[in-house]
Amino acid sequence: MNDALDPSAVARQPTQRRAKDRFDRILQAAETLLTEQGLSGFSIPALAERLGYTRGSVYAYFPTPYAILNELVGRYLVELEAVFFSRAEELRNLGWRDGTAAVVDHAVAFHNAHPAARLLILGGAVTDDSYRAQERTNQRLGELGRMVWYQGGLLPEGPPDLTTLAADIGTACFRRSFFEHGEITPAYRDAAVAAMAGFLGPYMEAAVKPAARARRKAG
């Protein structure tokens, strides 16, 4: 996610144990501050005051607030990836339509359980760097989708990047729900499933028909 980002938007990763502990405490406090105050109340001075740290001790790891936000997004994506990877075989065995619904359900549960993640991933980009980070987020979500939707080669690899586009569509439904309701509601969950399935369906059907004809001829 850090490729092409301004260095000021990227955290400086510590190497020593004590520094890593401080780094993690800063991120934990940042998550709490975001949950309580939102982006409008988030700043490094406010974060330093909450922790009882000097501002310089926060800037040592995070040159700007966006470095904190991007680091948090990266961590949230690792958590979300872990959810999908732990269920990869189950999702593949469901078939692409049921698998799509299951992916959406897992994503809904994750976002609704993590208010700060919901804010950062669904809230929209606020700078050029955060826009690029957001686009990389959707690419990673698309990569996760390939576990379910690629189906052993039935989906063409692109261009276009079908699974990332499907992730974009689902995320758009989530964002609208977040904007209107502050969370992902059942109605918008259903809209995400329908929109993603409607987009992927023609590609899947176009790939399945020749494969089915080949199996009939071989039989």
Automatic annotation (TrEMBL):
Gene3D superfamilies: Tetracycline Repressor, domain 2 (1.10.357.10). Keywords: DNA-binding, Transcription, Transcription regulation. InterPro entries: Homeodomain-like_sf, HTH-type_TetR-like_transc_reg, HTH_TetR. Coiled coil: none annotated. Residues 43-62 bind DNA. GO terms for molecular function: DNA-binding transcription factor activity; transcription cis-regulatory region binding. Residues 20-80 form the HTH tetR-type domain. This is HTH tetR-type domain-containing protein. It comes from Solimonas fluminis.
